[in-house]
Amino acid sequence: MFESLWRVFSNADLRRRVLFTLGVLSVYRIGIYVTLPGVDRKALRDSIAGDTDAGLLGIFNLFSGGALEKASIFALGVMPYVSASIILQLLSSVYRPLEELRKEGEAGQRKINQYTRYGTVVLALAQGWGTTVWLESQRAQELLSVVREPGWGFRLMTMLTLATGTVFVMWLGEQITERGIGNGTSLVIFTGIVADFPTAVGQLSQAFKSGQVQPLTLFVAAAIIIGTVAVIILFERGQRRIPIEYSRRIVGRKMYGGQRTHLPLKVNASGVIPPIFASTMLVLPNSLAGMSIPGMDDLRDVLLRGGWVYNSAFVLLTVFFCYFYTAVQFPPVDVADGLKKQGAFIPGVRPGKATAEFIEKVLMRVTAGGAIYVALVCIIPDFLRTTFRLALPFGGTSIMIVVGVAIDTVNQVESYLISENYEGARTTAL
After folding, report:
1. Are residues 231 and 312 located together in one domain of the fold?
2. Of 156, 180, 195, which residue is a domain's last?
3. Where residue 418 sits, what CATH number does that domain have?
4. Are 314 and 379 in contact (CB under 8 A)?
5. What are the angstrom distances between the C-alpha of 262 and each of 240, 274, 344, 385, 414?
6. Does the residue 190 lie in any domain?
7. Which domain holds residue 152?
8. Residue 29: Cβ-neighbour burial (10 angstroms; 0-12, 13-18, 19+)
9. Quick check: helix, strand or coil at residue 141?
10. Do residues 157 and 222 share a domain?
């Protein structure tokens, strides 16, 4: 470990990138504690005590790194940006102009990124309006209003503040991606989750000292969590490699092509998007019940978190969204066309339609294992809650995000070091 850190900080450029990333993340974490004007943070904390563990509030609080329960100017976090990115990805598979832009390469991708930023602003304003309405409806135990002076002035100011905060966090993430190390948006979410881990450990330690958690229970839970992390690492790094060969061609007196490589298909190509979609759909009845919509109260009582109905529906929805999102991100027909244009083919498979069918068949099999893995990992916290009566402050989705981002960042650091060593050896040889 110390040798790896020495390698990172002994490289001047990589050291600068790492320090820049840490500095930007520090700015983000400091901004978490800047409260929205006109909001009583203590009254809000008393009002929502215990309500941020589940539901839509819990999902938004997860992606904002706890900023929502603190009524921060960064309360929306990167959620609008993530939502806009997903919407653009889905639209690019059904809306022809966006599909053409996606195929234009780097120039088209820049245009799509610009549309994503515009969509982020629109979603941030819409979610900001919802947040203002929610804040005005909160009351502390003393029946004190969380908002000191509710009204249109507060709503408009809060909408603009939250939208500005989201745009600023989005810009911070882009700066990390461009000038730092790792994916900026993922690291922002990662930082928010990891920042709550010491508090979670402290709560478990306090419960153990008070006798609420028995030593054997804590040991079994720790073993399950460690095993879950190991399984996540195994599946996140897992790939199905399809062999690819390039056709030989003669240009002048030289022969080109004939190379062999592979097409990697990730076991979990959809990441943590499916469980987030599934959780959002399952907590909608709870949100709609508060609007006095007929039938929502009964549906909310059936979909109790931790119950077999909730867990079964969660698994089925997660599996469905894994297949759906993978198909959107990795269309076999486009991959087959790309291979054909490059003069590449799969040994034993005819180019074109047959290649697309072969890739789709392999992708469906690989996704089956990945979908089951994602669903089971995400319901482990509920299993611990119901079986061992152990309330974990973090869920399976949080663990997946932390481990996945850590693996991706470490891989980027290693690739950077390998590239630097290669360039240095090449310069020395010349």
Report:
1. yes
2. 195
3. 1.10.3370.10
4. yes
5. 9, 27, 10, 43, 21
6. yes
7. 20-195
8. middle
9. coil
10. no
Single-letter amino acid, residue 371: A
Torsion of CA 343, 347, 348, 350, to 10 degrees: -20
Task: Find the helix or strand (DSSP H, E) in which 142 lies.
Answer: none
Distance between CA atoms of residues 197 and 367, nearest Å: 31
- Given 176, 195, 214, which residue is the final one in a domain? 195
Strands 239-246 and 344-345: antiparallel
d(CA 9, CA 18): 8
Residues 300-331: b if buried by 16+ CB within 10 A, e if exposed: beebebeeeebbebbbebbbebbbebbbbebb
pLDDT in tens, the chain (430 residues): 566 667 777 777 888 888 999 999 999 999 888 888 888 777 777 666 555 444 556 666 666 667 777 788 888 888 888 888 888 877 877 778 887 887 777 788 888 888 999 999 999 998 888 888 878 877 655 556 778 788 888 889 999 999 999 999 999 999 998 888 888 888 888 888 888 777 777 777 777 777 777 777 778 777 888 888 888 888 888 888 888 887 766 555 665 556 788 888 888 888 878 887 787 777 766 666 555 566 666 776 777 766 778 788 888 888 888 888 888 888 888 888 888 888 888 888 888 888 889 999 999 999 998 898 888 888 877 777 777 666 665 667 778 888 888 888 888 888 777 776 655 544 444 4
Rounded CA separation 262/335 (Å): 13
The angle subtended at Cα 410 by Cα 408 and Cα 413, nearest 5°, is 110
pTM reported for the whole predicted model:
0.79
Residue found under tokens 């994916």? 183
What count of other Cβ atoms lies within 10 Å of the Cβ of residue 4? Answer: 12
Distance (Å, whole) CA 93 – CA 115: 15
Rg (CA), the chain: 24
Burial class (CB in 10 A: 0-12, 13-18, 19+), 397: buried
Contact 275, 375 (CB under 8 A): yes
Nearest CA among 103, 158, 169 for reference residue 133:
158
Q: Does any domain span residue 267?
A: yes
